[in-house]
From TrEMBL, chain A:
Molecular functions per Gene Ontology: transmembrane transporter activity
Family: Belongs to the binding-protein-dependent transport system permease family. LivHM subfamily.
Primary subcellular site in the record, as a coarse category: membrane
Spans traversing the lipid bilayer: 6-27, 57-79, 91-116, 142-167, 188-208, 214-232, 269-290
Membrane topology, record value: Multi-pass membrane protein
Location relative to the cell: Cell membrane
Protein's name in the database: Branched-chain amino acid ABC transporter permease
A GO CC term attached to the entry: plasma membrane
GO BP annotations listed: amino acid transport
Length: 298, 271
């Protein structure tokens, strides 16, 4: 029983990370109609910035996290401003290719600055654990789940109650009608990128603070968050969170019971589980769990 | 040859406007018109005459359609806004009700109205909301409903209400009576009249010429991107050609379609 709970807990922590990244995908997709493949690059950038703030500059970890998110947000908005704004109104295919190109530009940039070796982000969590009712829980996992919960709640409050959140929803629903209300589409696009980058940065730092440390391969996590977004429904923020948690749980549980149940499938079967799950769910619900039926797919 | 001489500068003045879509299709060919302060101006014309394009050119929405102003000017209260971006035009006091309502169907009625007030300071919101809900009691009772579930008439009211949330000095209405039952058309008519009485100038684009001319002070007739007729609404309403083309009635009773066609071929204003 305890083993199961431990696995579920690990799954929730992993799923929280996926949920953050998937939310970033959804924010950009909803407002601009583009799937941002550079999300993984922004995640890595955020994590490395966090390392610089916490390690090189020796700032308090909390301060470093906030600064890294802000810096990533600025980077995201700049990418939008410098590159993607020129592509507004162009075919989505071209824009998506640009985001893929961006990913391949950001990654070498990161290795050029920070190198290839694994870095340790100084952080108060490390591999510390707490014991609650006989259950051994990682401090970092608890923080990841907690921070994600706070961010997700803040995210939904922002879109429901603030004027700018409303403007973003209006633009997502009908860009031209939103323009006619005097809503600046440019600002909406820039803020979408900023939000997505900040979410990715938060996911990146919480990951980098873990036992694996920080290496350039951290950007691959976005690839695993990709099925989370698709599975939840491309245009649904709550679907992204749900999808993230489902994928995280599935991956952690497979890993936990790999030796007993999936030994025939080799030792790394948990890595493909997200994709298998995505395929199965898309076969049953082609528009994702909570997605809009008529959403444009590419 | 505008007949009325405005005493104050017009709210909207469009001069020799030429608009091109996709760098090829010339839709407006030197169009000029004026909306005097406090007036209701009707803009009539067949499909494809360029009515909607004119509205887009005024509000800056051409960019969303790969359109571009190549010549001429748009002035609001004497300020040049030719090719300005939509946010600036809305802040300058122009609100547009787009053809086909275009309410944000996933949002509630109140959220739609909040979106309409986007360009205004937050402090004004309560006041504007009271004003608009006063004008549309039907919306007041459905504030929390999802806009997509409203009836067509209610959605049109919501679209107009949303535009009024920006406290415009000039309201552009693109075919507000489209697809509405006759009684609802009358309701729209009354509302436009009330909005005008409250001090907002109105540019009314309509296929329903009787309705439009019955509340307008002045009317323009558009044909292939040009103004071919204009004059006081009362004059246009009794004009034989207008009656023939837009009101579908003639002095000599019913006529066969064949005859109408030959008549049209012989007589075009722009020819």
């Amino acid at each position: 029983m305890n083993a199961l709970l431990t696995n579920v807990f690990a799954g929730l922590a992993l799923g929280s990370t996926y949920a953050l990244v998937a939310l970033g995908f959804v924010v950009i997709f909803k407002s601009t109609g583009v799937i941002n493949f550079a999300q993984g690059g922004l995640l890595a950038l955020g994590a490395y910035l966090g390392y610089t703030f916490a390690g090189d500059l020796a700032l308090a970890f909390g301060v470093a996290v906030v600064l890294a998110c802000l810096a990533a947000a600025v980077a995201g908005a700049s990418v939008e401003r410098l590159v993607l704004r020129r592509m507004v109104g162009q075919p989505p295919f071209a824009v998506i290719m640009i985001t893929i190109g961006l990913l391949f530009v950001i990654e070498p940039l990161i290795t050029a600055i920070w190198g290839f070796h694994t870095l340790n982000v100084p952080n108060p969590w490390n591999i510390r654990t707490v014991e609650i009712g006989g259950l051994v829980l990682g401090v970092r996992d608890l923080w990841t789940i907690g921070l994600t919960a706070v961010v997700v709640v803040g995210f939904f409050l922002f879109f429901r109650y603030t004027a700018f959140g409303l403007a973003m929803r209006a633009t997502a629903f009908d860009p031209e009608a939103a323009l006619a209300q005097g809503i600046s589409a440019r600002r909406v696009y820039a803020v979408s990128w900023a939000i997505a980058a900040a979410l990715a940065a938060l996911a990146g730092i919480t990951l980098a603070a873990g036992p694996g440390g920080l290496s350039p391969s951290i950007s691959f996590i976005a690839l695993a968050a990709f099925p989370a977004m698709i599975l939840g429904g491309l245009d649904s923020p709550s679907g992204a969170v749900l999808g993230g948690l489902i994928i995280g749980l599935a991956e952690a549980l497979t890993r936990g019971y790999q030796d007993q149940l999936f030994s025939w499938a080799g030792s790394n079967v948990s890595v493909i589980v997200p994709y298998v799950l995505m395929i199965v769910i898309l076969l049953i619900r082609p528009y994702g769990l909570l997605g809009t039926k008529d959403v444009r797919r590419i | 040859m505008p007949t009325n001489v405005p005493t104050s500068p017009p709210v909207l003045a469009v001069a020799n406007l030429e608009v091109v879509y996709d760098d090829v299709v010339l839709v407006l060919r030197g169009l000029s018109l004026e909306v005097p302060a406090g007036a209701v101006v009707a803009l009539l014309g067949a499909n494809g005459a360029g009515k909607t394009t004119l509205l887009r050119a005024v509000t800056g929405l051409l960019i969303a359609h790969r359109g571009r102003i190549v010549k001429g000017s748009v002035t609001l209260d004497g300020t040049d806004v030719t090719g300005a971006d939509p946010a600036r035009v809305v802040r300058g006091g122009v609100a547009q009700v787009m053809e086909g309502r275009r309410v944000f169907a996933e949002m509630t009625v109140e959220e739609n109205l909040r979106a309409g007030a986007h360009s205004r300071p937050r402090a004004e919101y309560r006041e504007s909301l009271t004003r608009v809900l006063d004008l549309f009691p039907a919306l007041a009772s459905r504030r929390r409903s999802t806009a997509g579930y409203l009836s067509g008439g209610e959605q049109q009211m919501l679209a107009i209400g949303r535009a009024l949330m920006a406290s415009p000095r000039l309201l552009l209405l693109d075919e507000p009576s489209l697809g509405l039952a006759p009684r609802l058309v009358e309701q729209v008519r009354d509302i436009v009249e009330r909005i005008n009485q409250q001090g907002t100038s109105v540019l009314l684009v309509e296929q329903n010429a009787v309705m439009a001319l019955s509340i307008a002070h002045h009317g323009y007739v558009l044909e292939v991107g040009k103004v071919v007729r204009d004059g006081p609404a009362a004059d246009l309403l009794v004009d034989e050609d207008i009656r023939e083309f837009y009101l579908g009635s003639t002095e000599g009773g019913r006529r066969s379609f064949a005859q109408v066609k030959s008549y049209r071929r012989k007589k075009r204003w722009s020819a």
